[in-house]
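Milestone 3.1: sequence recovery, worked example.
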């Protein structure tokens, strides 16, 4: 996935490659790893394994349950990592019509094509409400990642105006206020405490965090002994919270193994994501064409495998049938191979899309965009009476 220059969740890769053939691949590798963690998260939470009548809840402290809980605990942290990569690059870049068009075209293509496939397979229905959600790129400003990312993407030019007109002290004060508002209440989220959060506003918080790292680099930001040590600490703390939540379920009626990593704005999810980002940012890795090619399609992996309820039912419950493999002796191997296989298939599909559709279309776009842009600017000037 290419985060800075290419208009998708991680737009930098393909365009930057034109400018520098030796671009580092450390954050591209990080993108791949975090998407694998997101797919692993979906393996657990979308398959019935963790539902009220699922096998994990029935026996939360078994070896298989603990493996699956730890295997699927990192999805929200992966979301934080992806958006921080966007913030790190885009705080010094600009949104263009081409970048946004690439994002919208990819989202809408997968929405429509996958819907039609499932419709002809008898797994989707024709209805007015379903048609409306199909043709609109955004239908909810809540927890839907794709729709919220599209809206957030449009906010980036205005966020950049803000961060470039603040000094460092103001930036720190803003981060502290956002931490208090979103992370403190997001971590407690029980009883009278909590925060009603949507991903659009949360992505802005992550953007400010990543922008601070980029604009005000500190010596320890580049010290991987420090960053790696803290990353290990937060991974262990997150893992301990999951195991503790599973143990609690054996003593009470509460089944909350993911309580402290249940959403992106919990303290452990934020700290693990920040230090994972810092750690991979510091890894010295030269340009690797294979890594960068795969990374450029990771957003496509998300759009394909998490496309709809019909996809989730078909993929996790019918094809992979994760719950039915819970008691297998080689269940762990099955889970790992399934996640890698899904990731690989989706990457191949997206690479085909890029080469057969995206590249030819935007080659045409580059040829004609100057005339289109000039005509649009003329109408805009007329509308606002610009002399």
């Amino acid at each position: 996935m290419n985060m800075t220059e290419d208009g998708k969740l991680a737009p930098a890769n393909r365009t930057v490659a034109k400018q520098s053939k030796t671009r580092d691949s450390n954050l591209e590798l990080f993108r791949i790893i975090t998407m694998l963690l997101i797919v692993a998260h979906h393996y657990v939470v979308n398959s019935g394994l963790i539902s009220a009548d699922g096998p994990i809840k029935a026996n939360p402290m078994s070896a298989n349950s603990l493996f699956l809980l730890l295997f699927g605990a990192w999805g929200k942290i992966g979301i934080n990592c992806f958006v921080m990569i966007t913030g790190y690059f885009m705080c010094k870049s600009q949104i263009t019509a081409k970048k946004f068009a690439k994002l919208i075209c990819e989202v809408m293509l997968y929405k429509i094509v996958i819907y039609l496939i499932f419709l002809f397979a008898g797994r989707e229905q024709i209805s007015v409400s379903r048609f409306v959600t199909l043709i609109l790129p955004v239908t909810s400003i809540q927890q839907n990642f794709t729709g919220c990312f599209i809206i957030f993407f449009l906010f980036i030019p205005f966020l950049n105006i803000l961060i470039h007109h603040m000094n460092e002290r103001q930036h720190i004060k803003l981060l502290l206020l956002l931490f208090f508002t979103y992370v403190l209440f997001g971590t407690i989220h029980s009883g009278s405490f909590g925060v009603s959060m949507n991903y659009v506003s949360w992505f802005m918080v992550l953007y400010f965090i990543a922008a601070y790292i980029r604009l005000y680099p500190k010596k320890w930001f580049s010290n991987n002994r420090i960053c790696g040590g803290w990353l290990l600490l937060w991974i262990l703390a997150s893992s301990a919270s999951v195991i503790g939540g599973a143990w609690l379920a054996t003593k009470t009626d509460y089944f909350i193994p993911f309580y402290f990593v249940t959403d992106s704005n919990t303290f452990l999810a934020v700290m693990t994501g920040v230090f994972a980002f810092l750690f991979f940012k510091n890894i010295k890795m030269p340009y690797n064409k294979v890594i960068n090619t795969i990374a450029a399609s990771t957003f496509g992996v998300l759009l394909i495998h998490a496309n709809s309820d019909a996809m989730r039912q078909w993929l996790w419950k019918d094809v992979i049938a994760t719950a039915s493999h819970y008691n297998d002796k080689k269940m762990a191997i099955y889970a790992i191979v399934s996640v890698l296989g899904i990731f690989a298939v989706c990457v191949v599909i997206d690479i085909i899309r890029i080469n057969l559709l995206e590249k030819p279309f935007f080659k045409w776009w580059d040829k004609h965009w100057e005339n289109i842009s000039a005509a649009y600017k003329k109408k805009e000037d007329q509308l606002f009476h610009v002399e």
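The radius of gyration is 22 Å. Confidence is low (pLDDT under 50) at residues 1-22.
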